[in-house]
Design brief:
This protein is an alpha+beta fold and 395 residues long. It has one domain: Cytochrome P450 (Cytochrome p450), CATH 1.10.630.10. The chain is built from 14 helices and ten strands.
């Protein structure tokens, strides 16, 4: 059994598990396999761990705080396979990061803004044509980042149902390990075929660029594509839908957002802080040597779990953290995208998708409202990326 708090209070879908507030800033944590590690719930020690090279992301060294660990590609020895750079430490991680960083700069992402706006407008046109009610997840929140990442990578969007289904299964801890592993295999097989097609005829996209301008193997390209495809739509889709739900439940904040377009940028940062969809014990690190964290000594080999939803509600860093303030200037310091060398590669793209997505939706449908009672909205509380499974809305 694990003593990591994961159960959220009924009727409080936007708040971290209440039991996290009773935990110290850095305290002991028992893992399902009997390992004794640490849980961090405060901002400063969490940020310090994320920036400290003495803490590793290697899955073969870390213990999982969850009964069913996250399923991901692994080599025979348990290490991250070639290309799965999110599970590597420098210098291996640095090699892949350098190859990809130029494709995700602020300037390059800003050039995508017209296309993101066009995609959002088309989805809103379709919603208006079909009429209310609509499931905002399927009609809007999921298609926007899915279309963008498909175009960026060179994945045919006609296959979106396939990769959305399998990525959802893989990331849901309610899925059996066998089913989740099978879904990861299906995704990897699909993308391996896509890589082979790019080898034969490189496209004008990220995969085509990597094929022609790097010495990456097919296995490396497949795992890079898998990383970007899943991360590129799951988290942003979760934030878009959950953010809309939160705004609809705080009508005074929503009214201010509608009236003042200048709030858009800070509102996105505040929603990222306030909601923090990466939950259930992610990310984790393992100490490579003895290190002090928040006044506690973490021994080499011990796993440290960072409770990011609690970290981003730390009152020492964010006054009145349980209150969403869309003009909160300090919200930009949140750790929703991580920190340090593993900070989310696609964070600028996610920000653009959310800024455009939220603003376009409420400009088009100023009377947007829930089509069901709030407690009837089903939550993704067993998924590694938190959010809503469906969000029925009307206008």
């Amino acid at each position: 059994m694990t003593d990591l708090p994961t159960r959220r209070t009924p009727g409080c879908p936007f708040d971290p598990p209440a039991a996290l507030s009773d935990r110290p800033a850095v305290g002991p944590l028992t893992f399902p396999d009997g390992h004794r590690g640490w849980l961090v719930t405060a901002y400063e020690p969490a940020r310090a761990v994320l920036a400290d090279p003495r803490f590793s992301v290697r899955a073969d060294l870390r213990h999982s705080p969850l009964p069913r660990p996250n399923v991901r590609p692994r080599s025979a020895d348990g290490t991250a396979p070639p290309g799965w750079f999110g599970g590597m430490d420098p210098p291996a991680h640095s090699r892949y990061r350098r190859l990809l960083a130029g494709s995700f700069t602020v300037q390059r992402m800003r050039r995508l803004e017209p296309r993101v706006a066009e995609i959002a407008a088309r989805r809103l046109d379709a919603m208006a044509a079909e009429g209310p009610p609509a499931d905002l997840v399927q009609a809007y929140a999921l298609p926007i980042p899915s279309l963008v990442i498909c175009e960026l990578l060179g994945v045919p969007y006609d296959d979106h149902a396939f990769f959305q289904e399998h990525s959802a299964v893989a990331l849901d801890l309610a899925s059996s390990e066998e089913r989740a592993t099978a879904s990861v295999g299906e995704l990897a097989g699909y993308l391996a075929g896509l890589v082979r097609r790019h080898r034969a005829r490189p496209g004008d996209d990220l995969l085509g660029e990597l094929v022609t301008r790097s010495d990456l193997t097919d296995e490396e390209l497949t795992n890079i594509a898998l990383t970007l495809l899943v991360a590129g739509h799951e988290t942003t889709a979760g934030m878009l839908a959950l953010g809309v739900f939160a705004l609809l439940r705080h009508p005074d904040r929503l009214d201010a957002f509608r009236r003042d377009p200048s709030l858009t940028e800070t509102a996105v940062e505040e929603l990222l802080r306030y909601l923090t969809v990466v939950h259930l014990g992610a990310p984790g690190r393992v100490a490579l040597e003895d290190a002090e964290v928040g006044g506690r000594t973490v021994r080499a080999g011990e796993t440290v779990v960072l409770a990011l939803p609690a970290v981003n509600r730390d009152p020492a860093r964010f006054p009145d953290p349980a209150v969403p303030r869309l003009d909160r200037a300090e919200a930009r310091h949140h750790l929703a995208f991580g920190h340090g060398v593993h900070q989310c590669l696609g964070q600028q793209l996610a920000r653009i998708e959310m800024r455009i997505g939220f603003r376009a939706l409420f400009d088009r449908f100023p009377g947007l409202r829930l089509a069901v009672a709030p407690d009837e909205v089903p939550m993704r509380d067993t998924a590694l990326v938190y959010g809503v499974r469906r969000l029925p809305v009307a206008w």
